[in-house]
Amino acid sequence: MREIPFLRRTANLLALSVGLPALFLLTGCSSTDYQWGWYEVLPVTPGGTSNLKFLVGGVGLTLSLSIAALAGSIIIGLLVALPGLSSRPWLRLLNRTYVELFRAIPVLVMILWVYYGLPIVAGVSLGPFAAGILALTLCDRPSEQRYSGAASSLSTAGSWRLPTQSASPTSRKCVW
Questions:
Q1: Beta strands in 11-97 (DSSP E)
Q2: Could you identify which of 29, 36, 81, 103 might form a hypothetical disulfide with 142, taking C-beta atoms 3.0 to 4.6 angstroms apart as the criterion?
Q3: How open is the CA angle 122-138-59, to the nearest 5 degrees?
């Protein structure tokens, strides 16, 4: 039986990509005397119960922050997508510059700028929750703008018309 080189290379790559991380994970702490402290979150210990309540309480805050930031980014993304669909080149250039500028800023840097830099530059002091929503909205907004702009350009190009069948019952050809 003849061996296929492509399959052999793929199998080797798969073995390396699975085997090396597994090797590092299995032997990562074997040379140290570190013991995993699961007792810190076990509900049978008093400290574990309070730590577990603290962690579970953060889940609700994280979900509300994420939902608020997503809603804000969708709204702002749709508003920012409109100049990108304009026939005027300077509006499209302004939109593209704005999107690329905000996409280039990492999320952590944006959070620090909003929470610490905004009070210095603009004199606006936000609480941690509001600063988190604003920073995440600004970081996610270029992605939402790209999605909404792409969807708008598809719908304006006529690509979303429903197919209709031809009049002949024997023909099953769809007309777009």
A1: none
A2: 103
A3: 110
Cβ atoms of 86 and 92 closer than 8 Å: yes
DSSP codes of every residue in 96-126? HHHHHHHHTS-HHHHHHIIIIIHHHHT----
* SS3 category, 44: coil
- Residue 24: what residue type? F
How is residue 43 written in tokens? 């509900």
Kindly report the CATH number that applies to the domain delimited by 48-156.
1.10.3720.10
d(C-alpha 60, C-alpha 68), whole Å: 12
In the chain, domain spans: 48-156
pLDDT tens-digit profile, the chain (176 residues): 565 666 677 777 777 787 777 766 666 556 666 666 777 777 888 888 888 888 888 999 999 999 999 899 888 888 888 888 888 999 888 888 888 888 888 889 999 999 999 999 998 899 999 999 999 988 876 555 555 555 555 555 444 444 444 454 554 444 44
C-alpha 109/C-alpha 112 separation (Å) is 5
94's CB contacts (< 8 A; 6+ apart) are: 83
List Cβ neighbours of 148 (8 Å cut-off, separation of 6 or more).
Answer: 74, 77, 78, 81
Q: Which residue in the block uniquely carries the two structure tokens 């002949």?
A: 168
Decide: pTM greater than 0.90: no
